[in-house]
Specification:
By secondary structure, the chain is α+β, with helices and mostly antiparallel strands. The chain has 3 helices and 8 strands. It has one domain: STM4215-like (2-Layer Sandwich), CATH 3.30.2000.10. The strands form 2 sheets. Strands 1, 2, 3, 4, 7 and 8 form a 6-stranded mixed sheet that branches. The chain starts with a helix and ends in a 20-residue tail after the last strand.
């Protein structure tokens, strides 16, 4: 289920054209990363990391499970300038909030069906926003979205039957 959601979110981020430069599984990547001290191979800004909260799947039908899943999108940008009142760079310094609003707009009410037409995610609803003020030279805005997700991983993939055609010569 998590892989399907990860790939769906990645696809949606790309389609929304928010200007996100990096998308990955959250594993504390930005906690100790000062943008001025980045090494080659670290992530580019702005970045979005996905984190899944614990969830309890229940049976939906035979091999299909469903769960109310909360995923958190960590939006990480660099601190471009000071946002203090009266500074000429205030508008530029607050652009991270514009990006946070566009991220919210892209995922609020979003649903997803896979390539076979099966619903994977019901309507996503933002349920939490956590500004992280403890980062050096980075601004982090974490938005949590909740959705009812369906897991089809245990459903066998069926190949269409190919009928055997018998060709008989005409008399």
């Amino acid at each position: 289920m998590q892989k399907a959601i990860f790939l769906a979110v990645q696809e949606h981020l790309l389609a929304a054209a928010l200007g996100v430069e990096h998308f990955d599984w959250y594993n504390g990547q930005y906690a100790d990363t000062d943008p001025q001290q980045r090494q080659e191979g670290d992530f580019a800004y702005p970045a979005v990391f996905i984190e899944f909260q614990p969830y309890q799947p229940t049976s939906h039908a035979k091999r299909i499970q469903k769960a109310e899943v909360t995923f958190r999108l960590h939006l990480v940008t660099t601190n471009y300038a000071h946002s203090r009142y009266g500074l000429p760079e205030q508008a530029q310094a607050l652009t991270h909030l514009d990006l946070a609003d566009r991220l919210y707009a892209a995922f609020q009410g979003w649903t997803y069906k896979d390539s076979t037409g099966r619903r994977v995610l019901n309507t996503c609803t933002r349920v939490d926003v956590v500004p992280d003020h403890d980062q050096t030279n980075q601004i982090v805005n974490i938005q949590a979205f909740r959705t009812l997700a369906f897991d089809y991983a245990a459903v066998p993939v069926r190949q269409p039957a190919r009928p055997q055609l018998a060709i008989t010569p005409a008399p």
